[in-house]
Write a structure and sequence with these properties.
With about 120 residues, the protein is an all-alpha fold. The protein is about 70% helix and about 0% strand. Helix 1 runs antiparallel to helix 2, helix 2 runs parallel beside helix 4 and helix 6 runs antiparallel to helix 7.
């Protein structure tokens, strides 16, 4: 198992400081995607293919019930498509595509945490 990345910890620390609503749910959604991406890239031993696909399905179902800004929704959907390929070496590029939408919709602190 791996330890949590400082960026993921920063996203978690932003949650209590954010009021309820789409911004908070956006932070939560971003954190969920970052955690799954980190597990794909950093977990030793890695999850089985079947286990990872189940995790992605659970993530998609959870994201569908959240309300957050449209630019972030598009970016997270694109990240999920990239994660479905299951290539750990693509995770940094995937996460970098989330920085600009996070900055636009959730603020600079969230963008810095993802970066």
């Amino acid at each position: 198992m791996t330890d949590w990345d400082p960026g993921a910890l920063e996203l978690v620390s932003l949650l209590p400081r954010t009021g309820r609503g789409p911004r908070r749910e956006g932070l939560y959604a971003l954190w969920l995607v970052v955690r799954v991406a980190q597990d794909l890239a950093l977990l030793h031993p890695p999850l089985s293919e079947r286990g990872f696909q189940r995790r992605l399905a659970a993530l998609e179902a959870r994201l569908a019930s959240l309300t957050f800004p449209l630019p972030l929704r598009r970016a997270l959907a694109a990240a999920l498509l990239g994660l479905q390929e299951g290539k750990p070496d693509q995770v940094p590029a995937l996460l970098s595509t989330l920085v600009a939408p996070a900055r636009e919709t959730l603020g600079p602190e969230a963008a810095e945490a993802v970066q």
